Amino acid sequence: MNRAYNAVVGRLSLRPPQAESLAKLARAVEAAPELLKPERDVSAILSTLKAEFPTLEDFERDFPSLCFALATGVGKTRLMGAFVAYLHLQHGINNFFVLAPNLTIYNKLIADFTPNTPKYVFKGIAEFAQQPPLIITGDNYDQSGTVVSDIPTGFAHDVRINIFNISKINSEVRGGREPRIKRMKEVLGDSYFNHLANLPDLVLLMDESHRYRASAGIRSINELKPLLGLEVTATPFVEAGSGKVTPFRNVVMDYPLARAMEDGFVKEPAVVTQRGFVSDAHSPEEIEKIKLEDGVRLHETTKVELLTYARENGASIVKPFMLVIARDTTHAGQLLSLLESDAFYGGRYRGKVIQVDSSRTGAEEEEMISRLLAVESVDEPTEIVIHVNMLKEGWDVTNLYTIVPLRAANARTLIEQSIGRGLRLPYGKRTGNAAVDRLNIVAHDKFQEIVDEANRGDSPIRLTRLILEPPSSDDKKESVQIPSNVMSKLGLTTTGVAGSVQTQIVALGADSNADSHASSVFTTTHERQVAALAMNVISRYEARPDLAPTSAALATPEIQQKIVAEIAGQLAPQQSELPGVAASVPSKEELAGIVAKATAVIVEQTIDIPRISVVPTGAVTTGFHRFTLDLSGLHLQPGAREIVGQMLHSNEQFTLSSEIGIKESRLEDYIVHALVDFDDVDYFTNSDLLYDLAGQMVAHLKSYLSDSEVESVLDRDRRLIAKEIHSQMTKHFWESATAYEVRVSGGFSRLKECNVTATRGTAPVSFRETVTDVGKIKQMLFGGFQKCLYPLQRFHSDTERRFSVVLERDALKWFKPVKGQFQIYYKLGAEQPEYIPDFVAELDAMILMVETKARTDLNTQEVEAKASAASQWCKHASDHAAKVGAKPWRYLLVPHDEISESKRLIDFLRFEIKT
């Protein structure tokens, strides 16, 4: 793939489905270069691309048009931005026409294509930093459009992006009238429409194209005669009535919702009801009230879970909201009155509910739209949104967690409409916290119907492919064990001596029984047997920094003699007990030669990684400082009924109910008894603090609940409350010791075996080879190294691959560490995950630990926590190195867009992070 493709993928931090889509566009232009030429044979292009893309049957238009079907929440707007950037940078395309299906998406697209906005699609594209594209809209084209004739190509706004609302065009062609942009205007001496149609490089981008495929407006737009049409949609089909659908025939990229769920790009939808709920036992009004009350219970519980997650992980706080789907505008007004009344949880939600529908006009409408657009803001008070049918495509919120549908609809409609609005993740990826990653659909009266519908093979929850491609025979995976070069060069395979380190390179695409001793420095079985014994003996020196502070110390005469003597002692019983074996056992001189050769390989193929730990000395005491709880976001509500939910994708169930336990004599005891279950909370040393915090919580609950309701909440949610309190306690933890000591328990350590999964039959790729599809780079293995300490490596991005080219040129030796190699742990909330750096490289005067990271992620708390732990480790390692005459360590945190093969390795030293 070309440089422009790699640049766009890297600078825009495209997700794999987005990168794969862009790669398919690049492949299409590469396969049919005339695709971007005004004079071409469209039928010939179709034939060429049908051979390239098995799912492509027809363009379905007079011009070439390709559809990219990506599930809601994956990022279609950013993909359109990537299309524009790539076509401009690689092929010099300057004119684009973007179609929106409605006013909501039209306004959203204008905002997202405008610089200095939160979701600006070109952020990171250097070529657009000084002169961003000129945005021409359906509201200002008759003013902004005139500038295009006054600016020579190559100056100022090289790229022009026209954004129009197709629904407005549709309304203007009713009765056979021409749309306004096609009426004759004094613009460039012709209508603006004809100006666009005469452009030699116009590319048409169609957002949510399923909404207007058969409209009169799109037929008018066809007359623009663009070079190429690019359609993006989550539903690549047209509804034909009676439940029948007609699939698009021009799909080249198919990434449906089920795959997005499997890959963790969207929330997990779940349907919720009460345990044993019987619809017939309740009137419609009662069912409605029960669903609203249980929806609020879920909402408040989710709010606490989100607060706790943010505090434990140092993440930004997310304010969830609940969406209520009303029958009509009259019903929506009635719901607004109910939810803001004293009869509904004591008026708790007064001023926190907005009604969104067509009944609002004038100032009320402006306020409604303003609050709706700001609903993601933590400072905006809205917690419940009521709507009828206005909130469709284009309302891209990430904090919708609870949906209460009150409008009659079948199960399939409920699933499709509900999940389409609430699946986007607030942190951009799954967190591993079920409540943070889940969308709740409260549907007591439709529970089983929705579960049954979700489990149908053609349900959007299950359907992993909307447009079927021919099955591939190359999709089988296999586990690949990659030993270090030490093991390969010593010839230590699975057929080696019992008790020795046993491993074997599995060469992808080759016979796994091939001779794996070909690269070994030893030619006979006896030599490899001795080498295996030598490895076992040497491994014990890893934990003796007093005897071998570095791997080079293994080559000293004193240690060499000890290794030879120990191996000779192990071989002696064989010589005396097995007849005829004496002649095959090497002499002491031969043993010394084999050990020396094996040691030389180990030293040559090792970067010394000391084993470091920081331990307190003397008396150690711990505790928590007193503090005032932040309870501003906690308003749990009582409920005697048990709520049960079922995940629609995995069918796993969860419950929200009271615990079965002893009735506590004091309300505070519910919380304290749950707090002492945490490992770092000792009751005897912290009892005063625990009861103080529990008292604060009880007082808060009593501020809006009755005593009986408080006990109901404490009984049901004691562990949730304790988890929230504990997350705040960790910020006030203290530890005191007489002193801290850095201990080095090993001067070097053996490189661990690397285990990966790869596609069977796929041969390793040269690390210098340009990757044509970066979306699949994690599935590939790379080889051809001269200085790497492993024969094969896997990269997580093309940035890492390019950095390996620099390392191969400038480093003495390098490798990518695996889990457990360093045992560096960093603090992230209440957790202490292990940090695995991207690279370790040895130079003449130093050893580098390197992390490559997207520039947009450099200031996140997780990256900063990793950098702090790693730089501290490097300081301790350097202190140890100074004592034993070894090389110092330095930690580098390198932005991904700084990595270029034209730079020297020492050029990256300016990105060193120091303690």
Outline the secondary-structure elements.
Elements: H1 3-11, H2 16-31, H3 42-52, E1 65-70, H4 76-91, E2 95-100, H5 103-112, H6 127-130, E3 134-137, H7 141-144, E4 160-165, H8 166-172, H9 192-197, E5 202-207, H10 216-222, E6 228-233, E7 237-241, E8 244-247, E9 251-255, H11 257-263, E10 268-274, H12 284-313, E11 321-325, H13 329-339, E12 353-356, H14 362-373, E13 384-387, E14 400-405, H15 411-422, E15 438-442, H16 447-454, E16 477-482, H17 485-490, H18 525-541, H19 557-577, H20 588-604, E17 611-624, E18 643-647, E19 653-656, H21 667-675, H22 683-702, H23 707-729, E20 733-746, E21 754-759, E22 765-766, E23 782-783, H24 798-810, E24 813-815, E25 824-825, E26 834-835, E27 839-842, E28 847-853, H25 861-884, E29 889-895
Parallel strand pairs: 1-6, 1-9, 2-4, 2-5, 3-4, 5-6, 10-15, 11-13, 11-14, 12-13, 14-15, 22-23, 28-29
Antiparallel strand pairs: 7-8, 10-18, 16-21, 17-20, 18-19, 24-27, 25-26, 27-28
Estimated helix fraction: 25-40%
For the largest sheet, list the strands in their spatial order. 12-13-11-14-15-10-18-19
The secondary-structure class comes to alpha/beta
Terminal CA distance = 40 Å
Q: What is the number of helices?
A: 25
Shape: globular
Mean pLDDT over all positions: 81
Q: From the alpha-carbon coordinates, what is the Rg to the nearest angstrom? A: 33 Å
Beta-strand residue fraction: 15-25%
- Any low-confidence stretches, pLDDT <50, length ≥5? 145-156, 184-189, 464-475, 494-518, 576-583
Strand element count: 29
Largest sheet report: 8 strands, mixed
